Give the backbone structure.
Amino acid sequence: MKFLITGGAGYIGSTICSALEDSGHIPVILDSLITGREEFTRNRIFYKADIADRSAVETILKEHPDIQATVHCAALIVVPESVTNPYDYYVDNVSKSLELFKSLSDLGYPRLVFSSSASIYDVVPGFKVTEESPLKANSPYARTKYMMEMILKDFCAAYGMKGIALRYFNPIGADPKMRSGIHVKNPTHVLGKLVDTALGKQDTFDITGVNWPTRDGSGIRDFIHVWDLARAHVNAVTDFDGVFDRAGNPPDNYLVINLGTGNGVTVKELVAAFEKVYGKTINKRETEPRPGDVAGSFTNADKALKLLKWKTELPIEKGIEDALKWGEIRETIIKF
């Protein structure tokens, strides 16, 4: 089967494309390459265009009428950057998604899987959230994800679209076959920064915030291997109607599913695991939280198991190992 992947030249989008291909399917990539990498589109069907470009979407669907569903990954994602430059985040993430959803609806392609974020959850006692936990988006980035969910939900209710919002926790690692990974010159992901510190690309790893009400004071996260994350998308799009059947076909045509391991790991615990896999200690220091940072959360993963027939398989150590491998070869694949 064939699927449209917006943002398919990015870290997560490209890994989803690889997972689809490994399962015998064909990804069709729509990416503006504002942050994505053309290197990740090689030997794939690729359209360089903006998601808000109605004519580009029309061309793709005319040339590939057998597309079964869309996975919408395209977005700006750096939390501190969203605090200092919210305009771009609201335009690129919210306004352009609105136009994409309208194009897909008008053109008769109603099935959509949306890359949402666990950053929209409020901090709860014990830090473990379910899909019904209270929401409190604490940064412009998180608020754009919340707004995109609400737009999609309203479109599903009004226009007959069917949407699955997958709320990601904290992706780590790289494609185990090293086809893609973190693709920015200066990663903002915690594991990307650890790798850059280990490889001498930055002097010190900052543990941003050590006074959170967690077991060791550092933030708590649910670190999920990006390959496990990609597999969840394969299950969602290849059995789209089955997912809704198992959910009881809600009348609003909209589902929310958390994607995580179900285990909370603090940043200090991640650093310890990293040093164990790496075999050396790294330079590190404790600093104040970054703008938009929160204590964090991890997920109950029961709904993903029930609806997607999916659970994580790769441990945190595998994510660290793959991230280190990718960090060593990244600049041979990507020309910054």
